[in-house]
Design brief:
With 417 residues, this protein is of the alpha+beta class. The chain contains twelve helices and 16 strands. The strands form three sheets. The protein has an eight-stranded mixed beta sheet with strand order 7-8-16-13-9-12-11-10. Strands 1, 2, 5, 6, 14 and 15 form a six-stranded mixed beta sheet that branches. The longest helix has 29 residues. Strand 14 and strand 15 form a beta hairpin. The chain folds into three domains: 64 residues; 38 residues, no CATH class; 227 residues, Major capsid protein gp5 (Major capsid protein gp5 fold, 2-Layer Sandwich). Helices cover 37% and strands 21% of the residues.
């Protein structure tokens, strides 16, 4: 029996210490995975098949790599979260808003916020559905979402004050040319303009608090509300930005029409087929990844990312190129992302699994390709009645999203054509 069959799968630990310790442990486990997978591939090359125990060992270590990477990412995320503090206030009005909002959250007293409304109608009112959180709290929620929400972290983001954002674009491209300094400027053809619209939809979360928590003066209610809505908002956003149908939610990029890259036209996302149903090609699987990389124009590749879920990433981790190098590479340092064929990889659990005709992998410049539109302000409505003795906080923000450049994102489709 080979050494890999005798070796136990690494134990997955729960880390509560330094990020560097978790990262070192993750790197060590990944090296064990590479050794185990090398043995499996050697068995396939020698006997045309791999031992069942070797396959099971590789899968167990691969799962351990995934779990350690998840725990390491969580530790890294916590280390990046800045705390809300008084130093963030820049004006007396902000301090008054903070004090009034805290009083409202703890006791339901709306007096101070109503007085602020009389001075400036920008804070929202109870008939409109609650009160706007202080600016620094809204900014903190936005920063947290950019860390937690995978597509938001790489997409273009624009703040608006209206309910819809309209973006004109030239269907035929801009009219440009060369001309000397003193020459007459020739008349150009009128551009053919169209308009993209990005309506903002309401996203909500409803965290609950006990009266004891609200009465505790040591609890920063702004920090608490930001932490409570962070995960709920990020999960809903992540799903909508990928698969949303555009009805009461943003339109995800996978909801757009998909066509073979060879016949791509504006308004569709181009895909490259693997040529094998629900799988990579057995021979030279890296070739189809090269096809999707070079299916993207050079100007987009400079800021391109791979996007896939954890299961797809685990399958790719086993693959090598024609020179025997692993396609998937672990992060070189803590705080960096894993890479695939030299491009950063973003893990998004709402991407589909590898299956028949599924577009399980996306590649492109998402900052130019997908636009997220945030309407300014996060609103909170305090509800002490619906779930006594708990107090509910109906928290809403308005967000939209959709493709803004159909040529900036390409897909890998696991199908024959």
């Amino acid at each position: 029996m080979s050494n890999i069959q005798q070796t136990k799968a690494p134990e997955v630990k729960s880390y509560s210490g330094e990020v560097s310790d978790a990262f070192d442990e993750f790197k060590g486990t990944f090296e064990q995975f590479r050794e185990a997978n090398d043995d499996r591939l050697a068995e396939i090359e020698k006997r045309m098949t791999a031992d069942v125990l070797s396959i099971e060992k590789v899968d167990r270590i691969n799962a351990a790599v995934d779990e350690q990477k998840r725990q390491f990412d969580n530790l890294l995320l916590k280390s990046k979260r800045p705390a809300l503090g008084a130093s963030q206030f820049t004006s007396i009005a902000q301090m008054e808003h903070k004090a009034g909002f805290t009083n409202y959250m703890r006791s339901g007293n709306e007096g101070n916020l109503r007085q602020l409304e009389e001075k400036a109608m920008s804070y929202g009112s109870n008939p409109d559905g609650g009160y706007l959180v202080p600016d620094e709290t809204a900014a903190e929620i936005g920063r947290r979402l950019s860390l937690v929400s995978p597509i938001r972290s790489i997409a273009g983001v624009r703040q608006v004050s209206a309910s819809i954002y309209k973006k004109p674009f030239a269907q035929t491209g801009p009219a440009v040319g060369w001309v000397s300094e003193t020459a007459l400027r020739p008349e150009t053809n009128s551009p053919s303009l169209a308009e993209l619209q990005f309506p903002t939809m309401e996203l909500y979360a409803m965290p609950a608090a006990t009266p004891t928590l609200l009465e505790d003066a040591a609890v920063d209610v702004d920090q608490w509300i930001a932490e409570e809505v962070e995960t709920a908002f990020a999960e809903q956003e992540g799903s909508a930005f990928i698969n949303g149908d555009g009805i009461s939610k943003p339109k995800g990029f996978l909801s757009e029409p998909q066509v073979d890259e060879s016949v791509w036209t504006w308004g569709n996302l181009g895909y490259v087929p693997t040529g094998v149903d629900a799988a990579f090609p057995v021979s030279d699987p890296s070739d189809v990844l090269m096809d999707i990389i070079y299916g993207l124009k050079a100007g987009y590749r400079q800021n391109a990312h791979f996007v896939m879920n954890r299961k797809t990433q685990a399958e790719i981790r086993k693959l090598k190129d024609a020179n025997g190098n692993y396609l998937w590479q672990a992060p070189a340092n803590a705080g960096m992302s894993a890479s695939l064929m030299g491009f950063p990889l973003v893990e998004a659990e709402d991407m589909p699994d590898i299956a028949s005709n599924s577009a399980a992998i996306a590649f492109g410049d998402f900052r130019r390709g997908y636009l997220i539109v945030d309407r300014t302000g996060v609103r909170v409505l305090r509800d002490p009645y619906s779930a006594k003795p708990y107090v509910l906080f109906y928290t809403t923000k308005r967000v939209g999203g959709g493709i803004q450049d159909f040529d900036a994102i390409k897909l890998l489709k696991f199908g024959l054509v």
